[in-house]
Amino acid sequence: xxxxxxxxxxxxxxxxxxxxxxxxxxxxxxxxxxxxxxxxxxxxxxxxxxxxxxxxxxxxxxxxxxxxxxxxxxxxxxxxxxxxxxxxxxxxxxxxxxxxxxxxxxxxxxxxxxxxxxxxxxxxxxxxxxxxxxxxxxxxxxxxxxxxxxxxxxxxxxxxxxxxxxxxxxxxxxxxxxxxxxxxxxxxxxxxxxxxxxxxxxxxxxxxxxxxxxxxxxxxxxxxxxxxxxxxxxxxxxxxxxxxxxxxxxxxxxxxxxxxxxxxxxxxxxxxxxxxxxxxxxxxxxxxxxxxxxxxxxxxxxxxxxxxxxxxxxxxxxxxxxxxxxxxxxxxxxxxxxxxxxxxxxxxxxxxxxxxxxxxxxxxxxxxxxxxxxxxxxxxxxxxxxxxxxxxxxxxxxxxxxxxxxxxxxxxxxxxxxxxxxxxxxxxxxxxxxxxxxxxxxxxxxxxxxxxxxxxxxxxxxxxxxxxxxxxxxxxxxxxxxxxxxxxxxxxxxxxxxxxxxxxxxxxxxxxxxxxxxxxxxxxxxxxxxxxxxxxxxxxxxxxxxxxxxxxxxxxxxxxxxxxxxxxxxxxxxxxxxxxxxxxxxxxxxxxxxxxxxxxxxxxxxxxxxxxxxxxx
Length: 617
Hints:
Strand order of the largest sheet: 1-5-4
Shape: globular
Number of strands: 5
Distance between the termini: 11 Å
Strand content: under 5%
């Protein structure tokens, strides 16, 4: 086993090093759900003459259709209504298929059988509304005046998470005037609507809308003046957050919405802001075997930080480290972002997810970057200031409850659960989560030098203990799902000095071992985040197996029969090339957005195997 593990480490190391680009970053695809492909097809076909890129995107999108006519977001999903609606709409609009084609007719049959457009996700309805195929009032509507409510009010625009705000601002502008694109060749989807009574919103949403309207009446000023001020504020909110490449917060989804919203504000298609945004979006295209894929946010910082850390673990490989560190240092952020509202005395110093990201740092990327810098602090004293700035930023973003959010402190207003949009609880809020808290705790104790009696460490351990599921697992917000959360929590608890003598640690370790597959590996379905409970995939995946192994190795600190079986399974999985190695194990929005990080099948196994080789038998 040892020889096989050492051989695998060597092979993975060489493969990772081969992915390093000229500027030092490691180039992997951030392959997400097909909504971004659809958005780019619609955008390019509407506003450019780039038929070649549209054709490539369409070719790949069409290749993902199943024989039964539907598209899905992951292997064990037998058809996704929203994905099928979006894909067929884009392929028809771009002229890739005709309405009479067998592929489209099969898709239409599936859409009707699943209840038609009214049963689709809010984000799908928004796309259709932009192109005149769905009515805006039935999609999403909050008054634009919400942008004028002060942050101190019981509810304001700034109560939404930063991720939600950059999407809401353009959506509010469009829904306010029922904006629609007028272009030739838009396919008629009204026959797929079958709408009787619009449903899907929380019954308490009307109460939320009434609350907002009451607060708006208290605003001083003439109604018309307030209305135009509100629209202008939303427009400025977008413009002020455009990155140097023209994208909004480096996200494809928010940038696409911004382009349509600016058109709704009277901008011409030729306006430099719109043209630069389209140009910036082109840099998100990633060539795959079947054709282009449109990444929602290229993962250069994340992948580089993880790869540099994995390569530096013993037995370390120094090749490319200097360039990787230089790349990371160039992308540390020194501008104030929206996070400062929750931490006004905190200096900037975090990292974001994408290369163009300069004002939207997050906890996970920052701890990953700092972890990559840690081994070089003694030999490179010049890194100390960068490290200290980043460490202080992480500590300053800890929530009052002891956990860590993704982007901002204190975005937990319970009223936002009732926003009339699917998945509002996940998209609108940015609460403490087990995965972010656990991973941050591991960094602070294993790399940041904090001891178990440090106040931040004690608060984090308490939060994790308090939020453990009854079966011993933890729910992970940004990965799939309970394996992800449990791995992060256990590695954090172990780094903080908690052993199996701690009830939470023992219970979690026993839970992980109880869900081990018969082949020795681990695998969890994307359905877990929709079911709210662990749902086995029935097949092992490399990243989830590596997470489970990393957690158990952190807890037991030696090789055990369960761990040996897991390593044996992982070594076999690394030789596979099938759906299980392409299964999405990253998560964005339950039931709607999942990610297959192409880096994960290399980086996490490399970390787990290296840790395994350091353990005694």
